[in-house]
Automatic annotation (TrEMBL):
Family to which this protein belongs: Belongs to the carbon-nitrogen hydrolase superfamily. Nitrilase family.
Domain CN hydrolase: residue ranges: 6-272
Domain of life: Bacteria
InterPro entries: C-N_Hydrolase, C-N_Hydrolase_sf, Nitrilase, Nitrilase/CN_hydratase_CS, Nitrilases_CHs
Protein name: Nit6803 family nitriliase
Gene3D superfamilies: Carbon-nitrogen hydrolase (3.60.110.10)
Organism: Mangrovicoccus algicola
GO molecular function: nitrilase activity
Length: 320
């Protein structure tokens, strides 16, 4: 049964750069730790399993072949034993878990967000619709079928990754489905302080505009991991700061101090009554909308590369 108060945890931890097994172990440990603190809704960073492709930000394309192939080897398929373990952890602890993964679908990789409900079922699998800049060398594009809000044990949950939040129509697609809790993901340890500041502005604005809670998680890299990704000190600067793990209310306020350095968790209680308080004044898809002037066309069909046309029954009979 849903309650008026949901305890959320935004998790900022480092991946295991050696591969998915170690990172999944960190995910499972973090789920247990957060659940032990009463968390019912948990958010992990962007493509946390096995790790975000930081190499694509600091290596020229001609040097990306080996690390790209390694990422393909360590990426997860869905379903898989590793994702079954995450689903079981969500069920065991009765928590809704939002996890970013590199998903391998045959010869392609995708930036995928998974929402596991509190009973362990996969409530949503979606792919980032437009990889950003350097990421386009790594991931394929998602489609409108993934722009969905999942009805979960803690409420209506929507999710977007990183600069998808700069696509106002993608955000509006979730808003029109009345999301109550929004999960944001960013890589963290990237670009520098300006990225941290931009993330904060973006998360607070979406909370205000959507009239929902935002639980945002960014990743973290240790100094040893940064040196492992690239030995050049000048390029290592591009893999520091840029972290803004936070929980924002529908009124645009931080519900706990954000985490901008190191590993840890931001934990806060979400008073779901604040959604009605905000939307009474400004409901962007209700009384504040002007659909006769402005509306969204959302193509929610899966983007297929093969369309099969089967023969009519009478045609089959004629050739029998």
């Amino acid at each position: 049964m849903r309650t008026d108060t949901i305890r959320a945890a935004a998790i900022q931890i480092a991946p295991d750069l050696s591969g998915r097994a170690g990172t999944v172990e960190r995910v499972l440990n973090a789920i247990a730790e957060a659940a032990g603190k009463g968390a019912q809704f948990l958010v992990f960073p962007e493509t946390f399993v096995p790790y975000y492709p930081y190499f694509s930000f600091v290596l020229p394309p001609v040097q990306q072949g080996a690390p790209h192939l390694e990422l393909m080897k360590e990426a997860v398929t869905i379903p898989s034993p590793e994702m079954a373990a995450v689903a079981e952890a969500a069920r065991k602890h009765g928590a809704v878990v939002v996890l970013g993964v590199n998903e391998r679908d045959h010869g392609s990789l995708y930036n995928t967000q998974l929402v596991f409900d509190a009973d362990g079922t996969l409530a949503l699998k979606r792919r980032k619709i437009t990889p950003t800049y350097h990421e386009r060398m790594v991931w394929g594009q998602g489609d409108g079928a993934g722009l969905k809000v999942a009805d979960t044990a803690v409420g209506r949950v929507g999710a977007l990754a990183c600069w998808e939040h700069y696509n106002p129509l993608a955000r509006y697609a979730l808003m029109t489905q009345h999301e109550e809790i929004h999960a944001g993901h960013y890589p963290g340890s990237l670009v520098g302080d300006i990225f941290r500041d931009q993330i904060e502005v973006t998360m607070r604005h979406h909370a205000l505009e959507a009239g929902c809670f935002v639980v945002n998680s960014t990743g973290w890299l240790s100094e040893a991991q940064i040196a492992q990704i690239h030995p050049n000190p000048s390029l290592q600067k591009a893999m520091r700061s840029g972290c803004m793990t936070c929980i924002i209310s529908p009124e645009g306020r931080h519900l706990a101090p954000p985490l901008t350095e190191g590993e840890g968790m931001v934990i806060a209680d979400l008073d779901m009554r604040l959604i009605a308080k905000r939307k009474r004044m400004m409901d962007a898809v209700g009384h504040y909308a002007r659909p006769e002037l402005l509306s969204l066309l959302h193509d929610a069909r899966p983007a297929l590369t093969r369309h099969e046309v089967l023969p009519e029954p009478e045609e089959t009979a004629e050739h029998a």
